[in-house]
Structures are given as C-alpha cells and as structure tokens.
Amino acid sequence: MTRDVISVATATPVNEIASVMTGRRISAVPVVGVDGRLLGIVSESDLIRRAEIGTQRRRSWWRKVFADIEAEAADYVRAHGRKAWHVMTPRVATATEDMTLADVSDVMEKRRLKRLPVVRGNVLVGIVSRSDLVKAVARHRASPFTEPPADDTILRDLTARVKTVTPSHRLVHISVHRGNADIAGLVDSAAEREAILVAAENTLGIRSIQDRMILRSRSVS
Predict the structure, then answer these.
(1) pTM for this prediction
(2) What is d(CA 64, CA 72) in angstroms, rounded to the nearest whole number?
(3) Three-class SS of residue 193?
(4) Domain boundaries 14-139, corresponding CATH code
(5) Is 216 strand, coil or helix?
(6) CB distance 129 to 114 below 8 Å
(7) Cβ 125 vs Cβ 119: under 8 Å
(8) Tens digits of per-residue pLDDT, 172-188?
(9) pLDDT tens for each residue of 39-68
(10) What is the DSSP string of 119-168?
(11) Class (C level, CATH) for 151-215
C-alpha cells in the first residue's frame, strides 16, 4: 500500500480538491477528520456532474413531477456544493493492514473499485490502488533454486496443479524426465489445454514442456 496518503478535510474547497487530483495525477482523495478518521472519499466520478462546468443533471419536466424530493436535493448539493463534505461518498469500502493481496483484489473486483483506503480501526493509514497491484506483479520474480528438484517432486507438484485447473485431469498423463515434462491425453477445450500448459510453466524445476494433448471431439446430436 501507499502510506503517504494525500487526503483532504471536510471543509476543503471542491476546486482545490480537483487541483490536487489533477496535479498529483490521482483519481481520488480520502476525506479525513482532525483525528485522522476516514469520513469519506472524493473520486473523479463525484466531480463530473458540476454546475460550474454545465454538467449537472438536467431532468425533463415529467421527471421532475415524479422525482424524489430528497434525491433532487442531494443532486443539487453534489452539483453546487463547495466543500468536500458536499460531494464526498461517505460509505467507503476499506481494507485493513492484515488483508492479503488476494482479499484486496477480490473486494476491488466485486465492488468495481479503483482503490481501497487502508484503515487501522477507523484511522486512515494507507491506500491500495490498482496500480499498486500492477507494481507488485512487476516486482515478482520466480524463486531461484540452487539444486533442481527431483523428477518425482516435480511430477507431484505438476499433477496437483493440473487437478486444480481441469476436471479432465484423469484423462491427462504426465511424465517428467530430467526436468522435461511430457503431457499427453484428452482435454475438452483449448482453454483447459492452455491452463494445463500454464500450470506446467509455473511448476518449479520444469525445463521444457512436450505438449501432446488432444482436444476431445464432441458428438453432434
């Protein structure tokens, strides 16, 4: 996560928030209280419907007749309000310091978020963005080994991986000799075949892969 988080106060002017976001090239800023508590977040989507640039929502007369008065008032505040607390999203999905990257990515994917503030209790301590996850991928390197694993060890590892990626694993025969994997058998789809090959590429100790898998023909009724 990024620990040096750029944040704003509830009374920070909206135009100042926009300047910070464009100047720092960030798509959102958390809103915090004087005690560091996370109160909300202002993102680009919170600033695209603004009166000063003529993009506020315009309702036709018949929509106004049936409009929810409370929703209309809220729209007005978000379009014309001048402070962070007028435009911020108050209900913010967050992460904690002990969450795994898998947990973080699950939340971001399910909620369609670009970033997650990280909190300790209610206090903001960092933020994780999609770009942070991409940087983690860039830093990842395969673990080096001083001595290549034994063929039996490689075979067990690869067999276990194949079982997790395809229900057709019983129809796939794998052998390993001096780190060279031979994979033969029947699979139901090209996607399964590719998944098995990727599993082999990620198996420690494999030097080469001989692909002799065949796509199983499907009967036409």
Answers:
(1) 0.68
(2) 9
(3) helix
(4) 3.10.580.10
(5) coil
(6) yes
(7) yes
(8) 999 999 999 999 999 99
(9) 999 999 999 989 888 888 776 655 555 556
(10) EETTEEEEEEEHHHHHHHHHH--PPP-SSPPPHHHHHHHHHHHHHHH-TT
(11) alpha beta
The whole-angstrom separation of Cα 72 and Cα 84 is 19
* Token pair listed for 50: 């603004």
């464009």: which residue's tokens?
22
**Residue 193: beta bridge partners?**
none
Name residues whose C-beta falls within 8 Å of residue 43's C-beta, 6 or more positions apart in sequence. 27, 28, 89, 114
Q: Which two tokens stand for residue 202?
A: 């990620």
- Domain assignments of the chain as residue spans, ordered by start: 14-139, 151-215
- 14-139 and 151-215 have identical folds: no
Handedness of CA 193, 196, 198, 201 (dihedral sign): negative
CA proximity to 205, closest of 138, 150, 164 = 150
| Residue found by looking up tokens 């770009």 in the block | 131
Is residue 28 classed as helix, strand or coil in its secondary structure?
strand
